[in-house]
Amino acid sequence: LRHLFPVTQTDTIKHVRDAGASVNMLSDRHSNVSMSCDGSRWQSKKGPQIRWMMAQLEPMLDAATAAQQEKRPVNILDVGGGKGLLSAAIAQRFGSRVHVRVLDVGAAAIHSGRVRAQRGKIPNLEFALGDASVVDCAGVDIVVSLHGCGALSDVAIGHAVAAGAAFLVCPCCFLSNPTLGVTIPSAQTPAGHRETERVSVEKWLQVNSEDYLSLRQLAESQEKFSAKMAGDAIHAICALRARAATYHARERGHEELLEVKI
Predict the structure, then answer these.
(1) Is residue 160 exposed (0-12), middle (13-18) or buried (19+ Cβ within 10 Å)?
(2) CA dihedral defined by 73, 52, 41, 35, rounded to 10 degrees?
């Protein structure tokens, strides 16, 4: 599978460091939400990750806009988006072109995100408290998830496939959330509409549960074993997800529109 879905190299988003005491999410002209000081975790990790996600998202947004029959904001769902740092950046950067909804189970994070959005006057950003594995995602155009912990990445991709949407997912913490259900397209109804069903991650990926557990454990073993072995395991998990997305998209009848990259 790793040969079928090789890793695609993308441009590195360089760290942007201000000489002052704070740095914005993107830049002064796109964001008025000030974050933390130079040399912080924001500068070294979170900020560059968000900028990388934004760079990958832009051509997807262009494609979604071009495919519309009636011009409207592109609906973006941020699965497990927490306080909405990524979503706020997207909403501010692309303005009226998008409507972004953050979905998370953390009440405190959702409350904090709403307060930030109100203070920042970001009208195209909303927050919803709920379990991503059981919500209805019909009408979504693009699903994003930055650090979708464990099976939450599978949930995000499953929703995208079921909705016929694009997706941009950055996984992490491969042993987390193993009991989450994944929404996938079910058999076509006589009326020509597609229903959905929730299945286990193993059924979604079409893998043996014991083998998949071993693979996930290896993906989290960078300190115990070699970084290369862990990297290969992470690549294999991503390839399994790419295969699942491909298979279920074909079942849904979107084979000609499908392109999955790792």
Answers:
(1) buried
(2) -40
For residue 13, count other CB atoms closer than 10 A to its CB: 16
**Closest residue by Cα to residue 52 from 144, 158, 114, 132:** 144
Give residue 78's identity as a one-letter amino acid code: D
Task: Yes or no: say if 193 and 162 are a contact pair by the CB < 8 Å rule.
Answer: no
Length of the chain: 262
Cα separation of 260 and 167, whole Å? 9
Q: How high is the pLDDT of residue 36?
A: 42
Percent of the chain with pLDDT over 70: 80
DSSP assignments along 24-92, one per residue: BSS-TTT---B---TTSHIIIIIHHHHHHHHHHHHHHHHHHHHT-SS--PEEEEEET-TT-HHHHHHHH
Q: Are strands 194-199 and 182-188 parallel, antiparallel or unpaired?
A: antiparallel
Handedness of CA 237, 239, 242, 244 (dihedral sign): negative
Q: Which helix (H) or strand (E) holds 216?
A: helix 209-219
By the 10 Å C-beta count (0-12 exposed, 13-18 middle, 19+ buried), 69 is classed as exposed
Give me the sign of the Cα torsion angle 103, 109, 115, 116.
negative
Q: For residue 147, give Cα distances in angstroms to 9, 50, 57, 81.
A: 19, 11, 15, 9
Radius of gyration of the chain measured on its C-alpha atoms: 19
Condensed to tens digits (0 to 9), the pLDDT of residues 131-188 reads 999 988 889 999 999 999 999 999 999 999 998 899 999 999 999 999 999 998 776 5
- In this structure, what are the phi and psi dihedrals at residue 258, rounded to the nearest 5 degrees? -90, 130
pLDDT tens across 193-226, in order?
Answer: 567 889 999 999 999 999 999 999 999 987 666 8
